[in-house]
Amino acid sequence: MTMNLFNQFLSPTFLGLPLIAIALMAPCLLYPSPAPWWQSNRWTTLQNWFIGSFIKQILSPINTKGHSWALLLATLMVFLITLNTLGLLPYTFTPTTQLSLNMAFAVPLWLATVIMGFRNSPTHALGHLLPEGTPTPLVPILIIIESISLLIRPLALGVRLTANLTAGHLLIQLVSSAAFSLLLSQTTAASLAVGLLLLLTILEVAVAMIQAYVFVLLLSLYLQENV
């Protein structure tokens, strides 16, 4: 039973080739590119409005040096939302349930913010490791604690996204299995399970969007500290 539950998180293969690359290309194929003419359809207008609102909200507390990250953060946001929501469709694979993929997103971007901070203002970047007014005996301990807190940030980013999506998929599979097994014996209980499954699916769509937003929001906060 345990193996059956977690088999859905295995990367699918075809003729020995992993299909995760095709899954990662799906967002690029779904969204239309801007048209060269003035008139555009409603989908493109809605897409541009969403990206513009998101960039304005994320970059409002960041000074102008960090605005060069606007395209990267917006692309990452749309990319993660698309991967998370497409993974809720039947017979699909969710790449963001793989910790390795999420760490591949988190570590380079976090490291880029840290390197930017040390390059632009090393004194200010090092100042985050020691709060002002710290008693002298506590200085070594606080430096160690703050260093560990700094190094654990990308791990927290990757694990948070992986754990939330994995838990949601497991809940949906458990409830759907219960509804299917009760369908013939107990119709009332099966109907309740189906209703719960619909509510869980709606909740997971919200979680998929929120987790993508939180991932990018935390990256923007790390960027704000270093610019």
Distance between the termini: 50 Å
Low-confidence blocks of residues: none
**Strand order across the largest sheet:** 1-2
Q: The biggest beta sheet, please?
A: 2 strands, antiparallel
Mean pLDDT across the residues is 83
* Structural class assignment: mainly alpha
DSSP strand tally: 2
CA-based gyration radius:
22 Å
Topology:
Layout lengths: L1 H5 L6 E2 L2 E2 L1 H11 L11 H18 L10 H17 L12 H22 L1 H6 L11 H13 L1 H29 L5 H40 L1
Can you characterise this structure?
- This protein is mainly α.
- The chain is built from nine helices and two strands.
- The longest helix is centred in the last third of the chain and has 40 residues, at 187-226.
- Pfam families: ATP-synt_A (PF00119).
- It is found in: Mitochondrion inner membrane.
Notable features of this structure?
227 residues, 9 helices, 71% helix, mainly alpha, two-stranded antiparallel sheet
Compact overview of the structure:
With 227 residues, the protein is an all-alpha fold.
